[in-house]
Amino acid sequence: xxxxxxxxxxxxxxxxxxxxxxxxxxxxxxxxxxxxxxxxxxxxxxxxxxxxxxxxxxxxxxxxxxxxxxxxxxxxxxxxxxxxxxxxxxxxxxxxxxxxxxxxxxxxxxxxxxxxxxxxxx
Length: 122
Fold this sequence. Notes:
mainly alpha, Four Helix Bundle (Hemerythrin (Met), subunit A), 4 helices
């Protein structure tokens, strides 16, 4: 397993931990629907990162394209969840359109993973 894969696994683990913390906060705060959505995005996509790295490592998808999809999942879910969390706690987002940008990048990352699955492997 190479360095980028190990880094992505570590980032996925952090995403999972943050997702659990946000779920706990959402359960204890009034009107914390933003935190529930942020938690879900992190938890779902932490799992997607782990699965994508495993698929790339086992040459079940095109490795470089698969790793690009995994990087997209990390960046996009972090943008989405970070924006929603900041809005909950600070009353403002990361930057205008941060959450929609993250959401759009998540969609694109899933499409990149689909391409990795059908792209011929050498």
